[in-house]
Amino acid sequence: MASNTFGKLFAVTTFGESHGPAIGCVIDGCPPGLAIAPEDFAGDLSRRATGKSRHTSQRREADEVEILSGVYEGRTTGTPIGLLIRNTDARSKDYDAIAAQFRPGHADYTYWHKYGIRDPRGGGRSSARETTMRVAAGVIARKWLAERHGVRIQGFVSQIGERRLECVPERIDALGDVEGNPFFWPDAAQVPALEAAMDALRKSGESAGARVEVIAEGVPPGWGEPVYGKLDAELAAALMGINAAKGVEIGAGFESVAQPGSVHRDRMDPGGFASNHAGGVLGGISSGQAVRCSVAFKPTSSLRLPVAGLDVDGQVVDIVTTGRHDPCVGIRAVPICEAMVALVLMDQALRHRAQCGDVGAMSPRVPG
Amino acid sequence: MASNTFGKLFAVTTFGESHGPAIGCVIDGCPPGLAIAPEDFAGDLSRRATGKSRHTSQRREADEVEILSGVYEGRTTGTPIGLLIRNTDARSKDYDAIAAQFRPGHADYTYWHKYGIRDPRGGGRSSARETTMRVAAGVIARKWLAERHGVRIQGFVSQIGERRLECVPERIDALGDVEGNPFFWPDAAQVPALEAAMDALRKSGESAGARVEVIAEGVPPGWGEPVYGKLDAELAAALMGINAAKGVEIGAGFESVAQPGSVHRDRMDPGGFASNHAGGVLGGISSGQAVRCSVAFKPTSSLRLPVAGLDVDGQVVDIVTTGRHDPCVGIRAVPICEAMVALVLMDQALRHRAQCGDVGAMSPRVPG
Amino acid sequence: MASNTFGKLFAVTTFGESHGPAIGCVIDGCPPGLAIAPEDFAGDLSRRATGKSRHTSQRREADEVEILSGVYEGRTTGTPIGLLIRNTDARSKDYDAIAAQFRPGHADYTYWHKYGIRDPRGGGRSSARETTMRVAAGVIARKWLAERHGVRIQGFVSQIGERRLECVPERIDALGDVEGNPFFWPDAAQVPALEAAMDALRKSGESAGARVEVIAEGVPPGWGEPVYGKLDAELAAALMGINAAKGVEIGAGFESVAQPGSVHRDRMDPGGFASNHAGGVLGGISSGQAVRCSVAFKPTSSLRLPVAGLDVDGQVVDIVTTGRHDPCVGIRAVPICEAMVALVLMDQALRHRAQCGDVGAMSPRVPG
Amino acid sequence: MASNTFGKLFAVTTFGESHGPAIGCVIDGCPPGLAIAPEDFAGDLSRRATGKSRHTSQRREADEVEILSGVYEGRTTGTPIGLLIRNTDARSKDYDAIAAQFRPGHADYTYWHKYGIRDPRGGGRSSARETTMRVAAGVIARKWLAERHGVRIQGFVSQIGERRLECVPERIDALGDVEGNPFFWPDAAQVPALEAAMDALRKSGESAGARVEVIAEGVPPGWGEPVYGKLDAELAAALMGINAAKGVEIGAGFESVAQPGSVHRDRMDPGGFASNHAGGVLGGISSGQAVRCSVAFKPTSSLRLPVAGLDVDGQVVDIVTTGRHDPCVGIRAVPICEAMVALVLMDQALRHRAQCGDVGAMSPRVPG
User: Which residues are noted in the entry as FMN-binding (chains A, B, C, D) (predicted)?
Assistant: First the structure.
């Protein structure tokens, strides 16, 4: 119920501000017996981290995860897992100038109206710093999903600004060089051009949006709950809830509007489905096909280019944002999107076995 | 928590199958003192109903709402409101032929895998019949939102198949003829062409998708909860959870990917925001601007054109759907989308005043 | 979250007022494949019903359960089960006289202060009529618990007014004549005296309290969740939430205060526990022993003996309650207590298998 | 929903084991603008702490609270408040001997059956160490309740073993010396005898139970939600969920069973209620009277007196507990009970204003 908690059974509660002493999370409901070590987190946190290439914000956080509870002798015990990361490179002075101003396109204005008070340092709670803990929690979900069900989850970028991937892969095996460049871009041939475009963007002071896609393979049929806990609905919430997200698609998404029904519906052969316009979800329940989602990320509004905005007294002021920002925040959203997909699947997996049993899903007609 | 319940504080629980004896809902958490009468439901239910023009399914349901509880002498009492609608025009024989088959693009296959049992009559629980109760619950939410906060919510169709509205309005006042034609199409001049296109579609046995947009005006700044109860995230879940939805956008949506940051961010003047690419939500919290969402609906998969599918024994069979179906289900989704937006706003309104008080939202710096 | 919903995974939402058209409930999350028929409800509803002996209220309700959804060809489908019972013997005129008065010891006063409006007919929502639906939902829970886990649940009365059962049984097999008399009293020899005492009580216009105890056998070890979802904590809420309940005990309850630690702690032999002061729960988790609870029910405040009370204008008035009431409401609480225990166990059973798997509970050290 | 979270709107999630690196909590949903400083926690944490007199466990924890988030410039911001306390005096070696044994009366056996794995150090998650965070969270709740509504909450001990307080006060003003002795005992004259009894108990190796009572004054009428979110039901869950609790009463509790109805029901005069057998709750909603609860705590099972128990291989072994334990754990439960009452009231206060508004509760007939 609490709004800083994600998930019903695999419930992740996060806390922490961008420039506070620490960020952290509590993961409640994790199945017992799963092997977890501090070093498990390094990979995905590093993929999300800033300061690793010239194309991201230059804030450099060690992102060392301390496991505070819930793990004994290297295995989860079923009790809540507390994770903590100290903030070490928060430069609050960068933000002092705009503490009394509302940056356009930011949550400054709305937090102030909602709460009557806000922590302006680095965007406070509304900073993407919070997503670090989503990625950390996602690591645990992904591990269980992989070990127990063989689920694999991989994200990539298919559009940056106006530049699109020519052919969007529908399977993880087809994702090519995705982990070999700073843009999570499957097609290695396009990377040099992207590097140049990003350099130009950074120099211009502008920013660009991105489209991130995620494929989850190995999801068994039967996950998802009608009618308000549908798998696709929860994926939509999970992905739209990431900072800067403005749109979410499942499968063919908005393209399905122009598809004839005879084309959109995925024919079924003895070997399975002949296409995957549905994106692996039918009636809110996984079909056994790859689950495919796509997310639109807006260009960051934190630019050093001045813009007219308001201060807390309602006066129009010229606002310049001088903090360290990503010219294209969508790129680093890839591991966050993967994590959110993992958290949704993990939660649905547990909910499914609650109602239908461990075996039920696979053997029709056996009461759960 | 329960998956057939929508909302945390204004909690709507629905039940009922397409061809069962009745559908119904329980609305828990409604503020006391709101005037509600059975006839309040007629308007929106009629907008959603089938059988009213030749462009929708010919199933004709009276959709008479019986108020079973929670209203005394015409006013809500604060206790749960039970609503019931008897099904009167369910023709289950239409479906007997495919009880042992999985219709491609439908939930037949996934329900079967999830539960090992399913009610095949009219799609059972997965039928859009369930959305009738969403609309009924939405009527109550809309009434409270209008009376208490002056919120207005209006949906429309901006695309059917490949046919798009030329200029998509951003304000309710600009929606023109939207309620004057069976397509919720703002531009009256295009309606004759749409009529012809729909007639051709129906004759061909094909189906088309639709894009539905919703505008909510009068939403005060401050509604929405960081970080997992964001207004836009909950709108995304609410809308993606409607039958046949495949994509959701807030504000500029996927177009924001290609917008430069300096364009996307909405400048603030003393008179307010100069544009609304954000769609009325910043950092997951309403900004006071119009909340704008867009939803992609796939073409229905229930066609009389045959398609290869599986039966329960895993054999490939030719499947023909002969029931009564809409050639473009997205059109009737307009009042459903409005209702879901209303339910999200209502729930967020109550959650906001729980934490920040009735007055808090409007008077910054006063402790809640 | 909604306050008229009980349970997290086996979620029962009730609605309806004492003198409204109907009462009902929606049961969400029921495992699929369970055989349920309308006649399954008759037994427990009859045990709870009024009008069956001279010792209860003379209201006579048919209590015919209509299954509105969630059951297909006699088996649960996993979708929400809607149950409806029409009110047929509501005599609202009995209550007209006190519509503007607050009956002492009743919810009239508090509903009025909470909501500013109330349905005074028969106590409205605060009437014990609502508990009919708890019993109905409990029937389904008990059936699943019995079929799947062999759980048996039986309640009895161990005290009426000052009259106590001499020896309180700790096992169901020892409950003797409990179902053979209108008082759920295990010791048949005491029944004639109870009959006489109840007759005298009724004639005097007074009322008496009761202590109800419930034993649940066959509960496997491992159900219950630390630290705020403890089995005993949820039993306490479930039982204290029944109308007129004022106290709840688990196992030795308040007697444990005066027990030395060496006596209270239950020694473990190879054959199991040597005693059961714990009441089958250790650390909030079932131990495999019989779960034992005890509930105190106050005497009803609805007496024909006049009492000073307030009217809605704050004036002191003499209040006489002339409706049909039980002289000892606690007696009929037996099936309600059993139902609430069943609902708690059912919900915990599903939550346990969500986190630990179907097999996990029984085979330590196997990761869930 | 998560089982380590307490509360729906003022949601407290705790984590941490007795001998892990730290314990902590996240408080979500706190109203913004409340002044909170680290030193606010010292008072209640010290009242709960061990090692302060010879009558408690000799474990000495600094219990220094670090505020990790949610507070900016000394005031709550409305975002989640993370609190952390490092464990500094955990002596795990004390427990090594019994890592493979199940201490009777403890959660060892049930955790092992539930999860197949457990952290045996100091009882792990089942240790009362966890309650430190409840007290910390309760500090914030109490402060808001006091500042906003004038609510005062005070607990005391009314029975230790067989020794009872002669006259149990019903008002906070009558609690006399309760804060002046290590037993939270209102009657100073009895304290020397208690000291002697506790010394004898400690020397004997035995333990004793306690009855703790809590009075909350200033609770306005209207808090509590029918029918499954009743104030008394939630108090019962909150208090029964404290380690070692075996019984909970509201108002007259089990005594009400033997009270005639004409005595139990609290007469209403123009000046208010003439008595308070109800304990401040009618129909699950606060009546404006003092809320009174009573909790039974069992004697601790951790004795140095040997007892027959099982080891993980099912063999009977003699178990001696040599760790540092309280001879009467119930005494230190006083601030924990107060905290749980505060958390329940806080959550209900927010839920009430969500549905009925800030003003609604006090002015009947004004729609919320």
Answer: 125-127, 243-244, 283, 298-302, 324
Please give the average per-residue pLDDT across A125-138, as a whole number. 96
Closest by CA to C275, choosing from D205, D308, D327, is: D308
Three-state SS at A3: coil
Q: C-alpha angle with apex B129: B127 to B134, nearest 5 degrees?
A: 115
**Token pair listed for C145:** 């618990």
| Closest by Cα among A164, C113, A321 to D281 | C113
> In Å, what is the CA distance from D175 to each residue of C1, C211, C290, D43, D64?
37, 30, 39, 19, 29
Task: Judge: domain C5-362, CATH 3.60.150.10.
Answer: yes
Among A304-308, A360-364, B155-159, C138-142, the least confident range: A360-364
Interface of A with C in 72-111 (CB under 8 A): 75, 78-79
What is the pTM (predicted TM-score) of this model? 0.97
The residues in D 202-221 lying below 8 A from C, measured between CB atoms, are: 206-211, 221
Domain at D91-362, CATH homologous superfamily: Chorismate synthase AroC (3.60.150.10)
Cβ atoms of residues D262 and C309 within 8 Å: no
Question: What single string gives the DSSP state of each residue in B260-309?
Answer: -HHHHS--EETTEES--TT-SEETTEE-SSPEEEEEEEPPPS--SS-EEE
Contact criterion met (CB below 8 Å) for A36 and A81: yes
Q: In the A/B pair of chains, how many CB contacts fall below 8 A?
A: 391
Asked whether the beta carbons of residue D360 and residue B32 sit closer than 8 angstroms, the reply is: yes
Q: What is the pLDDT of residue C92?
A: 64
Low-confidence ranges of chain C (pLDDT < 50): 360-368
- Report pLDDT digits (tens) over C44-81: 999 988 777 888 888 788 889 999 999 999 999 999 99
**B365 to chain D: closest CA residue:** D33
E-only strand ranges, chain C: 5-6, 11-16, 22-28, 66-67, 71-72, 75-76, 81-86, 101-102, 152-160, 163-164, 210-217, 245-250, 268-269, 272-273, 281-282, 285-286, 291-297, 307-311, 316-319
Q: Average pLDDT of A209-231?
A: 97
- Topology at the third CATH level for domain B92-362: Chorismate synthase, AroC fold (3.60.150)
**Interface residue of C114, C135, C328 to substitute, partner D, most D CBs within 10 Å:** C114
